[in-house]
Amino acid sequence: MVNVFKKNRIAIKVLVFLLALLPLVSLVQGVLQDSLGPDPAKALSHISGEWALYFLMFTLGITPLRLLTHSSEWVHYRRMLGLFTFFYALIHLLVYCLFLLALQWQDLWMDILERPYITVGFLAWLCLLPLTVTSTNKWQRKLGRQWSRLHQLIYIVSALVLLHIIWQARSDLFEPLIYVAIFFLLMLFRLPLVKRKINRAIKTRAKNKRNA
Questions:
Q1: Which domain holds residue 203?
Q2: Model pTM?
Q3: What's the CA gap between 166 and 160, in Å, rounded?
């Protein structure tokens, strides 16, 4: 399966790109057909925010895939997923500023200062900015080892986003806690002990296949 991805990398990247645009197409269609419910602005904000979260989780899921398949092929898709995370987060922010606040910047700063879930959501978006700007190969070469350290901000972004949805949900925490559980599951694959066990299991399986 991994070899199929490697041989058809360009085609699969194009496919992933087009699939990642489907939520945007759906949002635009909803606006044009007036099918987003009684409060379209709120629906736009909610849906774009959800897709930003989904793509954040997809991005974090690359490391588990790399470990479980013992292949670095998946890394070639991480940048695109990360950029779409920022893309939908930007739409989320723009919808909030344009339609919910009507570009009343004073209200925006008041919300950031006085509403905790807005505060952490805005901080998460600010942390995504340097990750997006430095996502190119040129920046990776320019920053060297500092690039990896900078991009560990993704974990802070994830924590802030989870706080954002938990505080926004208030009493109905079922869905936010599912995202928290998924996040911690993805984080387990970063633990050295888990990495060693997975690598050992893969090597043992490969050895058994050779001896079979």
A1: 2-211
A2: 0.92
A3: 10
Closest CA to 68 of 206, 210, 202, 204: 202
3-state secondary structure 66-113: HHHHCCCHHHHHHHHHHHHHHHHHHHHHHHHHHHHCCCCHHHHHHHHH
Is 81:55 a contact under the CB 8 Å cutoff? yes
DSSP assignment string, 119-187: HHHHHHHHHHHHHHHT-SHHHHHHHTHHHHHHTTHHHHHHHHHHHHHHHHHTT--HHHHHHHHHHHHHH
Please tell me the total count of domains within the chain.
Answer: 1
Half-sphere exposure of 131 (CA within 13 A, CB side): 29
Q: Look up residue 135 and give its two tokens.
A: 């996502």
Convert the pLDDT of each residue in 101-146 to its tens digit: 888 878 888 888 888 999 999 999 999 999 999 999 999 999 998 9
Cα gap 114→184, rounded to integer Å: 29
Distance CA 154, CA 163 (A): 14
Give the pLDDT confidence of 5-33 residue by residue, as tens digits.
Answer: 778 889 999 999 999 999 999 999 999 99
